[in-house]
Amino acid sequence: MTVSLSFEKDLTDLGFRHIAGVDEAGRGPLAGPVVAAAVIFPAGTFLPEVDDSKRLSAEKREVLYQKIIKGALAFGVGEVDVEAIDRVNIGQASLQAMRKAVEALSVTPDLLLIDGNIPIPGMTIKQLTVIGGDAQSFSIASASILAKVTRDRIMEAYEVLYPGYGFSQNKGYGTRSHREALKRLGPCEIHRRSFSLFGP
C-alpha cells in the first residue's frame, strides 16, 4: 500500500472541506502514555515523502514533522497517561487520546478520517474509519508521524526521570533489554500495570 490523496480527493468531491486525519501512537508499549494527533491540510496539499510512521526512520520522521506542521491548516495532539490506560484499558485510552487531539484543533473539521475500524465515541463530527489508513491516506499518515514524534520525545524525557530502562532507545516497547531491566529494577511509575510486564 502507498500513501496518496485519493481518500481526501474523493471526499473533497463530495463537498467536505476540512478533513482531519487522526491516528495514535503507543498502543503496544509496556510504559508511557498513548498519544494521538489530528491534522487538517489545505485542499490539495501533498508531501510525497510522508508515509506510515512505522515505515520511516526516526530522523525522517523528525524532518517530516516540521514540514507537516508548517503545511497544515491546523493540527492537534492528545495524550492519555498510564493511570488512565490502566483504568479504562488501552483501546478506550487510545480513543480518548484521539478525541483530545480532535478537540485541540483550531479549525473545526467537517469529517474525521480515522485509522482503524472504531469511530471515536461521542463525536458529533462525521467519521470514516480506514483499516490500515496510516499506509494509505496522506492525512492519516501525517497524523501518525505527529503522534509518533510527540510520543518519542516524551519517552526520551522520561529517560532522565527514570534511568536504567532505556526509554530513549526502546520508547517503552517490550524489547529484550527493557524486559531485562524490568526484572532487575521492577516497574517504575510510568509502567502500565494492566500489561503483562514480565511476559516472554
Count every beta strand, where a strand is a DSSP E run of 2 or more residues.
5
CATH superfamily: Ribonuclease H-like superfamily/Ribonuclease H
CATH C-level label = Alpha Beta
Number of H- or I-type helical stretches = 7
Keywords for this entry:
single chain, 200 residues, alpha/beta, Nucleotidyltransferase, domain 5, 5-stranded mixed beta sheet, 7 helices, 5 strands, 40% helix
Task: Kindly summarize this structure in a few lines.
By secondary structure, the chain is of the alpha/beta class.
Structure, explained:
Helix 2 (58-71) packs across helix 5 (138-161) and helix 3 packs across helix 4 (90-103). A hairpin with an 8-residue loop joins strand 1 and strand 2 (34-40). The chain has one domain: Ribonuclease H-like superfamily/Ribonuclease H (Nucleotidyltransferase, domain 5, 2-Layer Sandwich), CATH 3.30.420.10. The two termini are 31 Å apart. It has a five-stranded mixed beta sheet. It is globular, with a radius of gyration of 17 Å. With 200 residues, the chain is an alpha/beta fold. The mean pLDDT is 96. It contains seven helices and five strands, in the order αββαβααββααα.
